[in-house]
Amino acid sequence: MPKVYLLDYVAGNIRSLVNAIEKVGYTVEWIKSPEDVEKADKLILPGVGHFGHCMTQISNAGYLPAIRKHIESGKPFMGICVGLQSLFEGSSENSSVPGLGIIKGHLDRFDDSSKAVPHIGWNSANTSDKQVFGLRPSSKYYYVHSYKVPYKKGELENQGWTVATARYGDEEFVGAVAKGNILATQFHPEKSGVAGLRVLKAFLDGKQESEVNAAIKAVEEGLTRRVIACLDVRTNDQGDLVVTKGDQYDVREKSEAGNVRNLGKPVEMARKYYEQGADEVTFLNITSFRDCPLKDLPMLEILRKTSETVFVPLTIGGGIRDTTDTDGTKVSALDIATMYFKSGADKVSIGSDAVTAAEEYYAAGKKLSGKTAIEQISQAYGNQAVVVSVDPKRIYVSEAAATKHNTVQTKYPGPNGEQTCWYACTIKGGRETRDMDVVELVAAVEAMGAGEILLNCIDKDGTNSGFDLELINQVKGAIKIPVIASSGAGNPGHFEDVFAKTTTDAALGAGMFHRGEYTVKQVKDFLGEKGLMVRQFES
Ligand code: 1PR
Predict the structure, then answer these.
(1) Which of 66, 196, 237, 294 sits at a 20 to 30 Å CA gap from 504?
(2) What is the C-alpha separation between 248 and 463, in angstroms, rounded?
């Protein structure tokens, strides 16, 4: 198989990129020192997370002159995400660290006054009338970043670049640039399904340009509504790892001697949802797999296998906290996250530990310790890699003044007719309720560097009665980072509701997909019919 060289310089999920490269018929050779760069014909510079951190790593390892020489010699070069950003002169993410300066221009942060930042999800890379390196104006690609190159018509074109554009809110930015043998994408081709694999293959095959035919004309620009499939995974009483699903977090059958509900095999179900068009797949490990050395965690194997066939982002949650291994060795949450990233995860989701960290944050007078799992993982992998999973429960009160917590006026009165409630945070899968409300929690974890909130709701989980719109609106009003609405989805109309009546950034379903009541495709087709922009699955 032909080779492509990958620069091994920075933390991050490189496994999915390797899987994607292999999927399109190439093998990966690792570049481990600047001298290796000369051997490379085709070179890929991946990168995710913080611009300053990535550039400093590349620079300290002595790679900059070798990369510049490779590009100037006209050999094929592809930059991905921070790999694109590195070609520019600099970024306001860290103004003291320069980029390679091969392209004139600077990056700045998305304006978060009217939209969530980071920009996470599927957006265009529109080259209008040409297909450049397989980029199609009709396709959507997976982006995750807070800083962007603003698009000013003609500016890069005058330097000889072809530009693929994307739009987020009222900001138009550079989705990809190409010139000669150089291609750089702000999005992640390895996470962009078939559309992304096509781009990767076109680059590796050296297919620079072709005409756009009528079938692949532009679709509307902008971020699509994200639909996520979630798989709760645990060992059943026979010791098998199964996808399960609870009713208000109770995963045992009411009949059949109370067995753990078994809805299928995790890897196969993840693949099925990918093929139905799921924009992301989330695994929640809802038991801690006690008595198992961490390196043998069954979830690692599930991720490795899934990432070979599922080319959309994978999130893994459950058990991400400082812990002690079976042989007594202390293992940090960061070490556990690293194992997950190396096995194919793109994001980790932290539940119980985030609540404890938030309690400590407030106890310390809102001072960051730098030691929490959220801070350490987002520092190392970027905040887009850290999701906080929230498991709130409704607590009714007679009036707002009856509690110190942030309340909502509810249309769904409590058992004694109460029209006011607050949402208490829980830990350990809802088994323990804490004296902290969701607004306090999400504000604290945003300050610590979380990049996204997975907002469950114990009262709604498994009820098929629709999302808790009051909860979602309360949380969206408190933070700038994206929110994934979760719990209660029972039909496609519930997804329409949550997108129409809240400003949620994504919506997640579990039981209705697992039980085969609806497919992800049916949900997306329905949203499309209602005029909401969704990504169509490409085969
Ligand atoms: O606390 O960091 O170890 O993480 C544990 C993770 O496992 C948390 O993300 C927590 O939400 C999850 N979890 C723990 N126990 C359960 C349980 O069900 N017994 N599952 C559990 C949570 C909730 C959702 C579900 C939606 C949608 N699952 O993610 O998928 O409610 O369901 P629906 O569409 O069928 O209504 P830590």
Answers:
(1) 196
(2) 7
Cross-strand bridge partners of residue 140: none
Tell me whether residue 170 is one of the annotated catalytic residues.
no
Confirm whether residue 417 is marked as ligand binding.
no
pTM beyond 0.90 = yes
Select which of 232, 359, 459, 461 is catalytic.
232
Would 355 be classed as within a structural domain? yes
Interface ipTM = 0.98
pLDDT tens column, 436-475: 999 999 999 999 999 999 999 999 999 999 999 999 999 9
Structural tokens at position 452: 């996204």
CA 250 / ligand 1 centre spacing (Å)? 10
Which of 196, 216, 236 delimits the end of a domain?
216
Domain CATH code at residue 415: 3.20.20.70
The answer to whether 49 is a known ligand-binding residue is: no
In a 13 Å sphere around the CA of 118, the CA atoms on its Cβ side amount to 27
123 Cα–ligand 1 center, Å? 28
Residue 257 CB neighbour total at 10 angstroms: 7
295, two tokens: 């390196």
Q: Is 81 a catalytic residue?
A: yes
Domain endpoint, select from 179, 195, 216: 216
The string of pLDDT tens digits covering residues 149-176 is 999 999 999 999 999 999 999 999 999 9
Number of domains making up the chain: 2
Residue appearing with tokens 């320069």: 98
**CA 433 to ligand 1 center in whole angstroms:** 15
Sheet holding 90-91, edge to edge: 90-91, 106-109, 147-148
